[in-house]
Amino acid sequence: MGILVPAFLGLSIFIGGVVLFYMFRKQYTEQVISSNLLWEQVMNEWQATTWWKKLQRQLLLLLQILILLFLMLALARPFFTADGLEGDHVIILLDSSASMTTTIDQDGTTRFEQAKKEISGLIDKRSRSQAVSIISIASTPTLVVNREIDQRVMKDALEEITISYEYSEIQRALSLAKALSEQQASSIYVFSDQMTEEHFIESQINSPFHVVNIAGENDRNISIMTFGVNTSRAGALGVVTLRNESSEEQLVTIQVMADGELVHTETVQMEATTQAYLTIGALPPATYYTAKIIEDDIYPLDNVAYSFSSIEVKPVLYLLGDINPFLHKVFLQLGNDIIQAEKIEDVHEFAKNSIVIASETEQVFEVGRPLFLLPSAEGEGIPLEKKVEIKSNDELFSYADVEEIYISQAQSQVSQSVSLVDTVMFSGDIPLIQKGYKNGLPFVQLLFDIQDSDWPLHFSFPIFIYHSLEYLKGESTHFGYFQPNEERALQLETAGMYSVIDETEEVIATFDRDNDFFRAPNKPGLYSLVDSEGNIKRFAVILDEREKETQAYQSFSKQGKETTMETGTVQYEWWPWLLLIAFIILLVEWEVYRRGIRA
Q1: Distance between CA 166 and CA 98 in Å, rounded?
Q2: Across 447-584, where does the E strand assignment appear?
Q3: Is 247 strand, coil or helix?
């Protein structure tokens, strides 16, 4: 308990002034009248009354003294102290991953909402001199507030943080927090549900470290771990993996829909903390399937899963000009329909689902189709002096070993007419195969003549051609699966703007194919990408597998190596309450005066 400005207690002199004013009130002249004896008796009784009973009749005086007293105390700013936070800098980390949407009580409060409440209370405990930084934990940590002093700015920024639905890269966020803490004495607070002591040990943080893993009142959660549909012309067979995370036995009802129409319902009894595998046969052909758990639980995000039809239509291949016979033979073996022509002008119209194989020319980029580009015959070749290498983990070379192949020379000049180029095969500094996008469409380009290589004699050659066609063809009705907020270059035929539509048929975003990479929505669900001509391609935003775990770990605290850091104190001023009391007394005093009460 203390007073910040004791000098204002000197204003008590005004209280004495009010008392003096009452002492010099009007004095009346004595006058004897016929009823003087009655007045003498009254005055004798008044003079015989004790001083404190006399004071009771001076109600206005008492009220005015109390008003002045409370105003004086408010100006003196009394306060009481409480333990605060450690260090000069408080770093707060808030997990915004999908699992933080788990509910913790019957009112539907989520872990994320509860974490915000506790952070707000933590901010209230800071002293005026302590700076606060807030980090939002997602796949990429975001510094929301950096060394802020203004409490209102902190809380406004805290309210603006939303769920990212991404997997929380806690270790990366701790690295950022560690960098911030090294500049001055700091304490770190983490609000999450999946933070473990192993994360703390790996981060090697020296500051005081406090983790609040927010749990809930119950653990009732059933999740769809996997859902797949094997489709064929005759029908479809679905397989669903369910997991009961609850500590009690649960009755689970699952529905399967084909293109949004309910086609199957099944109920299964699941023991506590077990998995169940369901096989669902006789599903009708459809472009996409949805599996959904009907029962409500603490984590609704893992109650729905999507699967797209695996029926594939092989693209038509347009072979323009002279094509190496080895290539021609591989295309035939892969079962694609082939149309040959001498030049582009000989093709009246390219099929919608097609790939063009031709030498690079300006005209070939105008056909608006995915391209498999072959080297032109112009220019002299560049002899290769180093062995052939490939880009690690590139999809075009999956299961394809190229260490033993031989290429004698490469094209003398590399094309500069395409953008977004990625070199996937090279010899030293000389590119041999490139892939990329131009005008939103993919291409694969060979920068050496197949006749200058023995690659067609190796088994990896047809594998490479197969993966190249898969890369070029894209999907006819869907784009597959995205992580929340994932960016990806899409193979789109129609130029211009596209609309992103959710399951409620609401447009939630737009996408310009010619200028932007596509960015998936952040919330899991089924979405459609619609072009200006009304063509629809669906995709699903799904949870990271690690975000299907709802178990909350134990909270803990670690002192770190800075054991000498003291915990500060917080001053809670209560002068606003004194002002409120003074205002209420002022209203009472005004009412007394209005009614004409006099001593």
Answers
A1: 6
A2: 478-482, 487-488, 497-501, 507-512, 518-519, 525-530, 536-541, 556-558, 567-573
A3: coil
Distance CA 435, CA 444 (A): 4
Place of tokens 């064929």: 232
Under a CB-based contact definition with an 8 Å cutoff, are residues 288 and 308 in contact?
yes
Indicate if the alpha-carbon torsion angle 395, 401, 403, 409 is positive or negative: negative
Distance CA 255, CA 114 (A): 32
Predicted local confidence at residue 166, as pLDDT: 93
pLDDT digits (tens, 9 = 90+) for 425-460: 999 888 999 988 877 788 899 999 898 899 999 888
Give the pair of three-digit tokens for residue 281: 């046969």
The residue type of 236 is A
Is the Cα torsion angle 165, 157, 141, 218 positive or negative in sign? Answer: negative
- Cα distances (angstroms) measured from residue 275 to each of 47, 229, 281, 297: 93, 19, 20, 16
Q: Is the pTM of this model over 0.85?
A: no
Q: Residue 450: how many CB atoms within 10 A of its CB? A: 18
- Give the residue carrying structure tokens 């699941």: 270
Tokens 């302590």: give the residue: 130
DSSP label at 100? G
Asked whether 538 and 287 are in contact (CB, 8 A), the reply is yes
